[in-house]
Amino acid sequence: MKNNKKIYEGESAVRSFLLPSNFGLTSIVELPSSLNPFKKDKVRIFVKLVHSAPLGNIKSLPSYVMLNNIPEKKRSRIKNLIEYSSGNTALSLTILAQYFGIPNVHAIITPDVPEHKKRLLQLVGTNLLISHGPPCPDVFGKVGGVHEAKMFGKKAGWYNLNQYINPGNMESSKEYVGKELWYQFGEKLSVFISSMGTAGTISGAGQYLKKKKPSIKVIGTAIKKGSEIPGPRDEIAIHKLGIAWQKIVDEVVPIDARAAFEKSLALIRLGLFVGPSTGMQLAAILSKLKEYKKKNKLKELKNADGEIVCCFLACDSMAPYVDEYFENLPKSFFPKVKDL
């Protein structure tokens, strides 16, 4: 029976609230012309607010699915879960693991992780382990945090989900992003955009959407080499991932930190409280639309209604990254503080 009143009761109420299948559809919001200069070209740009799900980030979805996919007999022997993550995956696993009977979650991070991100993880109860390997290690390499998490996972009572190759990563994206987008847009959808961290989201959702409508263009966004944006990987590191995204993604657009934070700030000031990885997706689609228009290729993206419908994803909020906005954008972007 559907929980139409949105009341979760009883001893298992919190777990029921956190269950992805109980969320309902996450909202999709169209951007106004102030952020869509291509409206006259019949382009419509939407953002799917996946971060409005409980725990406030898109990684809560694969975290739940990956935990749920562990056979119950094996799960009962796990006392320590360990993952290479300094952000939303570690946070989500820490909260969710307790509902699967796993008492301790450890996150391997690198020394460059900002203090406020460490505190956020400590706040939810994550145990932190510092790795001195590369910050974006090869998923199949023998050095760095991904490999170290695998080694810990072989110890008695320990387990490593390894989000970089775990099938639950793509499975959750297919179920809670791809299927939802198809239900909400159907044949009208022209372009799907997502940032690339593990590539699970873009691969799972993109694969599902392309099976439904092969002409849908799937665009990935990666960090431009030499820049830094929390969450996604850079344009070099995406080729060290374990998920075969290359068969699904049509194009990858490198975006620098200035563009990502600037577009995120523009969305925030509209009232859409999204993080920098969401801003980089908006920057990417605007860049590609400009290119398509210049090359007279926009018509190739039109749906049966003569429109071009683009949708990108809000992965998390701006809250964990407030300091970074002030570090990456000029002072002129922010009101001054004055003494009375």
Describe what you observe in this structure:
With 340 residues, the protein is α/β, with parallel strands linked by helices. It has 2 domains: 13-54 and 167-332, Rossmann fold (3-Layer(aba) Sandwich), CATH 3.40.50.1100; 71-159, Rossmann fold (3-Layer(aba) Sandwich). It is 35% helix and 15% strand. It has helices at 13-18, 60-68, 72-75, 88-97, 115-124, 145-153, 167-185, 200-212, 257-268, 276-294, 322-328, and strands at 28-30, 43-48, 80-84, 104-109, 127-130, 158-159, 189-195, 217-223, 251-255, 308-313. The strands form 2 sheets. Strands 1-2-10-7-8-9 form a 6-stranded mixed beta sheet, sandwiched between helices. β7 (189-195), α8 (200-212) and β8 form a beta-alpha-beta unit. The longest helix has 19 residues, at 167-185. It is globular. The N and C termini lie far apart (58 Å). The mean pLDDT is 95.
Write the layout of secondary structure elements.
Blueprint: H1 13-18, E1 28-30, E2 43-48, H2 60-68, H3 72-75, E3 80-84, H4 88-97, E4 104-109, H5 115-124, E5 127-130, H6 145-153, E6 158-159, H7 167-185, E7 189-195, H8 200-212, E8 217-223, E9 251-255, H9 257-268, H10 276-294, E10 308-313, H11 322-328
Parallel strand pairs: 2-10, 3-4, 3-6, 4-5, 7-8, 7-10, 8-9
Antiparallel strand pairs: 1-2
Helix pairs in contact: 2-4, 2-7, 7-8, 9-10
Give me the count of strands: 10
Coarse morphology: globular
Q: Strand pairing plus helix content: what structural class?
A: alpha/beta
Would you tell me which CATH topology of the largest domain applies?
Answer: Rossmann fold
Helix segment tally: 11
Q: State the helicity in percent bands.
A: 25-40%
